[in-house]
Amino acid sequence: MFLEYLNLLSKGYCNIYCLDSFSGKVKQKLLDIDSDFCSKHNLYDQEFDNKFDNKIFDLAKKDSSSKDALLALRGRISFPIFQKVNEIFRKYTYQFENEKINLNDMLIIVLDDSGEKYLRIPLKIDAKKNNFLRKLFSWETIMFMKENNILKPFSAEVIADFNPKLSNLNTWSQNKVKGNYELKKYLKECGILLISPWSLIADSSKKRIIISWREYGEGNLSEKDLEKLYESYLVEYKKAKQDYKNRTGKISGWTPDEDFLKSLNPPQKNTEILLLIDKALRKYISSPYDTRSFYEYEENQIENRLEDEEEYSSKDLSEIIKNVLRRNSTNIVNQIIKKDSAKWIKDPSRKNAWMLYGEGLSQREIASKCDHKQGWVSKLIPENKISEEIAQESAFELLKKNEFNKFKEDPESLDKLLDGLKSYLVFSEDKNNISILRNTIYEVISK
Amino acid sequence: MTKKNPKNDPLDLFPIPNDAIYINSKKNLNPRDKIISALKKYLKDKNLDLPLGPKLDLNNPLRSIILNKFDIQIVYTSLISDVIQIPLKNSKIKNKGPQLFLAAQLEEDLDVIYFKGVLKSSEFEKIVSKKELKKDFAEIEIENFKGGIDRLIRYVRLLNPESIERTYFKTAISNFKIPSLKIKFKLSTPLIASGLMAALIGPQIIRPRLIGGIAKLSPSTYEIQSFTRSSDSNSICLLTPTLTKNINNNFEAKIKIDKPVIYSLKPLNEINISKNGDIVWKRIASSKEKINGPINWPLNSINKKDSYRLSLRPEGSGMGSKLEIDFVFDKKIPLLRKDNIEKNLGKSKSDWISFIKRNIEKDNNTALTILLSESAPSSKTIEKSIKEITKTDDCK
C-alpha cells in the first residue's frame, strides 16, 4: 500500500518535496528554475534517471554560480530522502512496539529544503547577534558552507559529498539519511539506533560478516576476497574516521571517498560491494530470534534441578526468607508505584495496566485492554528489573544473618540464591494463580 | 558464494536496549569517561552508595576501576557490535588482573551506554581457553557477558571482595591460568541454595517457565459434521496452528514459519495438504497405524506466492467430514526459516528453550515447530514440555 502510494507520487526535477509548516504535511512545490534551462534540458518531461542525475550534477558544478541545475538536483534528491524517512518510519512502527516516533518530526530534520533560491547562512563569528549572510543557493555557496562546516539544509550536505563514480544519487541520498546525526539523535530518544552501512561493517566481527554473506550475500564475491576486503576495511576505516573527526570535530556523517575505496584490498571502484555486505548484515541481524533477552534466573532455573531438594527444607529459614521478601516487595513496589502515579492523571491507562498486571493478565492482554502495544507494557512494567531489585535488597538483608553467611563467599551460590528469590516472586503462585509480585502490586494500588 | 536472496527488507534500525543509560556528556570525553559517567548515573539513580575509585586516577584508561573493593576491568565496543576486545595487559601481572570484566556497549556520538554484563575471572578463563589469542588482547563474543549491570551490582554489593580471584596468566599465553577458586564452598553452597529455594516454595519454583507457558496453551476443538450413518459428530482438537474465521466464514491460520508443525491432540483419519488447489501430500490412517502426534511439515519450505490448504479428517469420521484450513501469510514480512533458526540455535539447550519460551505466547505455531523439531537437543525441559502439551485434558 505504502509502496503503491509512493509510486503514484511524481518523480521529476522541477518539484521539491518539502514539509509545509502550516499543515504539517509534505507537499510538492514547483521549483523556480529558469524556463530556458528547463526547455534546454527538457526538464518538465524528464523522469528520474541516473545518467541525467550525473549530467545535472556536472552542470551544477560547472556553472558554480548559477542556481538552476542545483535547484533541479535539490528537487531530485528530495524524493529519495522523503522515501527513506517514510520507509524507516514504516519499518519502525512495524518492528518495534514503541509509540514515541513521529513521522513529521523525522521529516523536519532531513526534508528541510523548501526550494528557496537564496540561503541565509549564519555567521559564526558573531552568532549572538544572529547575523546572516544572504547567498544564492549555488554550488559555490555549498562549497563555502562545506569549508566552514555549516552545511545546511540537509540537501546541501547530500550534494556536497556526492561522487557519481562511487554511487548513484538515489542510493547516496538514502545512505546519507541513515548517517544523519540529527535523525540519529531523534531516534535515540525513541529507543532506536539508526546506523550507517559504514559503521555497521566496521562494528561487525569477521565471523558475522562471513556468516551473513553466506546466508544473504548477493554477488560473486568469494569468501576469501570478502575476508581480505573486510580486514583492509577495518584498518582503513579507523584511519579515515580519525581523520574525519580531526577535520570536522564530528563522529557521525563520514562516508567513504574515492581514496578510501582505492585503499581497500581489493581496491573498490565504488561502494556497491560494501553496500551489499551491509545489506547482508542487516538481513542477518534482523533474523527473528534473539537469545539475548534470556534472563539468567530462568536459565539457572533450568539447570538447577537438584534431586536432593528435601534435604534442606527448613521451615524456619523459609519463613525468614518469605518475610524479608514480603517486606522488601511492598517497599519497592510502593516506591515504583508512587513514582509512576505522577503520570496517571495525564495517562490513566498506566494505572489500568498496573492494575491488570496485578490481576494476573498477560502483557498481551494488558496491551489489548489498554489500547497500547505490548512493548509499551513491557517498558512500563519491567518485571525482571523489579524482581531483581527486590531480590537484591532481600539478599542484602539475609546475608547479614549467620545462616546465609556462606553465600558471600561464592558467586555461583549467590546467583542461585538471587535467581531463586526472583523466581519465587515471579512464578510462585497463590490460590488464585497470582504471583507474589503481581499480588503485591495489586495490594499497593488497591490501597 | 551467493546462496540465497530472500526478499525481506533489511533492517535500517536497531532497538536500543531498554536498560541503556543516556548521559549528557561534555565534548571530548573518551569512551571510558562516558562509561564511568553512566555507571555513576546508575549508582546515583539507584541510591547505591558504593565507593568508586581509584579516586585520583579514575579516568586513567590503563587502570581498572575499583567498585566497593572489587577490581573491575571495563571493556567496551559499539552498540551493534558482536565481539569485544579485551586488553590483557593487567592480567599478565600477578595480583593486578581484574576480578570482574564489565562489558559496555556504547554509541559514542549519541552518549548511549548499555552495560551488557559481567564475566568473572573464572568465566573469562574458560572462554579464553578455547580461543586463539592475539598477543595483547583477547577477542570474545559479546554474548558471553551476562546479566547487565544488575549482575555487577549483585556481586560488588553482596559478595566479599576476596570471593573472586584475580585474573592472572604468566607471560606465555598458553600458560594462562587462574588460581583455583575456593572449592570448599562451591561444593556445599549450591546445594544449600537449592535446598533453601525448595524449602521456600516447594518444587513449583523449579518448574521452568517454559513448561508453565506450555501448560497455558489451550487447544481449540472444532466439531465436524459427520456424514456417516452415525449421527454423532466428531471433533478435532487442534493445538496448532491457531485458527480464525475470515469474512467468508472459512477457517484460516496465520503462518509465520516456512515449515509449520501441525498438531491435533486427538487422532486423525486423514490429513492432506494442497498447494494451489492440488493435493501435494497426504496421509491416511489404517487400522494398524493411527495418525497421532505432531506432524512436522512434510514438504519443502512454504512459498508465500502459493496458496496452501490443510485438510484434517478426525478419527471415526467418513469422507467429506473434514476441517479445511487456508494458510495466510503476512505480506510485509518474510517467513521465518526453520532451518536457519535451528542452525543459529545450534546445540545450546538454553538457547532452544529461550527461543521457544519467548515465542510461545506471541506465536505458538513457531514456538511449537521448534519445540517439536527433530533437531531439538536432548533436554529434560524440552521433554517435559512436550509431555505437557500432549495432555488432552483441555479437549472438550
**β-sheet strand percentage of chain A:** 5-15%
| Secondary-structure-derived class of chain B | alpha+beta
- Number of alpha- plus pi-helical segments of chain B: 9
| Mean pLDDT across residues of chain A | 84
Determine Rg of chain A (CA atoms, Å). Answer: 29 Å
Round the Cα radius of gyration of chain B to an integer and report it: 28 Å
Structural features, described:
Chain A is mainly alpha-helical. Chain A has helices at 2-8, 35-40, 50-62, 68-95, 103-110, 139-147, 154-160, 169-178, 181-189, 197-202, 206-216, 223-248, 258-263, 272-285, 296-303, 315-341, 348-358, 363-370, 374-380, 383-398, 411-427, 436-446; strands at residues 15-19, 26-30, 118-122, 132-136, 192-194. Chain A is built from 22 helices and five strands. In chain A, β1 and β2 (26-30) form a beta hairpin. Residues 288-313 of chain A have low confidence and may be disordered. Chain B is α+β, with helices and mostly antiparallel strands and 396 residues long. In chain B, 25% of the residues lie in helices and 25% in strands. Chain B is built from nine helices and 20 strands. In chain B, the strands form four sheets. In chain B, strands 2, 3, 4, 5, 7, 8 and 10 form a seven-stranded mixed sheet that branches. A six-stranded mixed sheet of chain B has the order 13-14-20-19-16-17, with no helix packed on it. Chain B has a four-stranded antiparallel sheet with strand order 11-12-15-18. Chain B starts with 12 loop residues before the first strand and ends in a 7-residue tail after the last helix. Mean pLDDT of chain B is 79; it is low at 1-7, 172-188 and 201-208. Classes of the chains: A mainly alpha (447), B alpha+beta (396).
